[in-house]
Each structure stands twice: as C-alpha cells, then as structure tokens.
Amino acid sequence: MKHLIKKLKIGSVELKNNLALAPMAGITNAAFRSLCIEGGAGLVVSEMVSAESIRYGNRKTLKLLEIYPSEHPIAIQLFGSDPCIMALAAEEAEKLGADIIDVNAGCPVRKVCAQGSGAALMKEPGTLETIIKKIVKAVKLPVTVKIRSGLAAKEIISPGLAVLIEGAGASAITLHGRAAADLHGGPPDYEAFAGTAAAVKIPVFGNGGVRAAADAARILETGCAGVAIGRAAVENPAVFAEVAEGLKDGGGERKGGKTGEGGGTAHNVTRGPAEKIKLFMRFLELNAALYGPERGVICARKLVGYWLKGFPHSSALRASFMAARALPEANALLLQYMGKHDSRIV
Ligand SMILES: Cc1cc2nc3c(=O)[nH]c(=O)nc-3n(C[C@H](O)[C@H](O)[C@H](O)COP(=O)(O)O)c2cc1C
Questions:
Q1: Is 107 a catalytic residue?
Q2: In angstroms, what CA-CA distances link 138 with 126, 192, 306, 322?
C-alpha cells in the first residue's frame, strides 16, 4: 500500500504528497488552509473566487485571495464563463502569490450555472477549452480544472472531458466522482475515477467521501494519482496526516467504523476532542487576524457544526457559539466547555 502515498508534481509545482484539500466556499480561507498544511495536506485550494469580481476589484473578493506565507503550495480556484476575464483574474491571482490556478467546472449551484460557470462549463466544452487555453497563455503557473463525473445522475462524461482539458494545456484534474445532479451526497463513482485516470497522462485527483485511508486507497487503486478531501478536513484538518499514515500502514480496514462512502476505518493517529478544541481556538485566532475579532468569529460559524460533531453536549455549545459576537467571548465558551467536560473529552 506504501506506493499509494507519494510525492507528486503538478506542472513545475512539487507536492510533498498526493493528498489535496478540496475547495469549499466559506471554509477554505487562509486561516483554515494553514491548519490543513500543518495537518499534512500536500496542496491546499482556495474557495471558488468570481473572476468577474476580481476584475472589478471587489474588496470582499480580493480578501478571498489573501495568501499566508505558511500555506504553500496553494491553488486559487476561479469561476466564470468569459475566457478573457478568467485570464485576467488568473494574472491577478498569480501576482498575489498563487502557485496554481484552478478552474471550477463542477459547481452545481444554480446561481453559478445560470451564468454559464461551474458545472455549466461541462455542457460547453468549447468554452471550457478556450478558458483553459487563455489562462495557460496568460500565466506562468500550472492550470488545473475541477470537474464532476457527469451532469445527470449516473452519467459519466468525465473521461472525454479530461482528454479535452489535457489537450488544452491543463496540468492536473480534480474529479469529484458524483454527478452535478447528486450535489454532495451518495457514494462516488469508482468507474468514473478509473475511466478518467486512464484517459489522460496528467494527474487526476479523485474526490468524494474520503474520511479515512481505506477510502483514499480505494480511489487511488482505480488509477487516480491523488485524492482531494473536503468535508472530512473541516471536521479534522489533520485528516491528511492520518490518511497518509494509514496508507503507509496498509490502507486500513474497509468495513464498518466511522468512515466515508468508501467504507474505510478512520486512522486516528493524532487528535482527541480536547486537542481539536485547542486547534479550533487557534483557527479562531487566525481567522480574527484575517477578518478582525468580530467578523473572524462570525465567519467561523460555518465550521463549528463540523468541528464539534460527536462531542458530548455539542448542540448546546454550538448554539452558544452561534450567538458569540467576538473572539474573547468565543474563546471563553470553548474553555468553559473544556473545563466542564474535561474528563470526557480529553
Ligand atoms: C460547503 C461546501 C462548499 C464547497 N465549495 C466548493 C467550491 O468553492 N469549489 C468547488 O470546486 N467545490 C466546492 N465544494 C465541493 C468540494 O470541493 C468537494 O468536491 C465535495 O465536498 C466532495 O468532497 P468530500 O466528499 O470530501 O466533501 C464545496 C463543498 C461543500 C460541502
């Protein structure tokens, strides 16, 4: 199983391993990505950023492009449908320190698709091809693309698209192995992983339902060069180190346990709940440095449900956290919780 965890190159960018963070809107900001790099990720990715808003210099959007020195290698993910605007946005992201430009061609959200962006680009391969070619020409960085296995449930169109994407000059593909119609639910399609990985020479990162080494192993065994992890990283940014360790140890069991859709058993080598709360407090601090002590806490609300999953009396803590307005209040709540439940959560 050792061969499944390996160093990888995306164009000229070297990754220490083949485990990437999947982009998540409202979650994968500089603070969270720093924790994932510390937690063993070989690559981190920003949330999708509107190319159009970058063009207009929207202040909130430019904040999304903020990169900490500690979080390389990092891909900035762009969404849009106009090839020239996407190329301009890519140039801006390059100036701001991105290592890789990722094109979102998989987001199923209606608002995004209605503008011809995200998964709508899978229906317009000519436009997708032009976008990739224009970005490749505009920047020196490697360009990657994130797609779905298909649009309608059970449809697999990713192998053909992957060939087009490679031909247009992209250096890697992330394949979310669920159709756009399936949003984020259900098991990923392993046939789509195998077919897509076999269709191209560039690395394909399989994505969907990875929570443990066995889930990652199942995807890597289809021929994918790497895996991308989304929601499991929100619960535990150290999941990357745990998956890497588990893959070295033989990939874990593939039956039972608290696992992803691949059915693997979590290889929990690092954090218990007390450590996770301390890590959450650190995240709050980093988030406050990014957005200020009030907004930093408000922005963290999206994560708290994931973070506290499975903790005793977590719903009461979650409710109080949702009402917290600034950093000292949020920290006090978390410390109080640790004190109260110490023996049960350490
Ligand atoms: C809250 C949330 C936000 C997401 N935002 C993005 C995004 O901005 N760009 C993107 O390509 N995918 C986005 N995704 C999809 C994830 O990158 C990933 O493909 C999906 O969660 C499946 O991986 P997982 O099963 O490991 O979570 C998002 C998913 C979630 C749950």
A1: yes
A2: 18, 31, 38, 43
Residue 2's pLDDT is: 57
Rounded distance between C-alpha atoms, residue 160 and residue 169, angstroms:
15
Q: Give 23 Cα–ligand 1 centroid separation in angstroms.
A: 6
Q: Which amino acid type is present at position 151?
A: L
Averaged pLDDT, 109-133: 97
Q: Is the dihedral of CA 66, 276, 40, 119 positive or negative?
A: negative
Taking CA atoms only, the protein residue closest to ligand 1 atom 21 is: 230
Candidate from 19, 21, 24, 144 with most ligand 1 atoms within 8 A of CB, to mutate: 24
Instruction: Provide the terminal-to-terminal Cα distance of the chain, rounded to the nearest Å.
Output: 32
Mean per-residue pLDDT of the chain: 91
The pLDDT value given to residue 268 = 44
User: Which is the closest atom of ligand 1 to the Cα of 261?
Assistant: 25
Tokens of 247: 């893959």
**All structural domains of the chain:** 2-248 (3.20.20.70), 273-345 (1.10.1200)
Instruction: Report the atom number in ligand 1 closest to the C-alpha of 178.
Output: 22
Q: What is the pLDDT of residues 217-272, one digit of tens each?
A: 999 999 999 999 999 999 899 999 999 999 997 665 543 334 555 545 444 444 66
Three-state secondary-structure class, residue 100:
strand
When pLDDT is cut at 50, 70 and 90, the band that residue 307 belongs to is confident
Residue from 36, 107, 224, 299 carrying the catalytic annotation: 107
Q: Which of 29, 184, 227 to mutate to test the pocket of ligand 1 (most atoms within 8 A of CB)?
A: 184
Contacts of 126 (CB under 8 A, 6+ apart): none
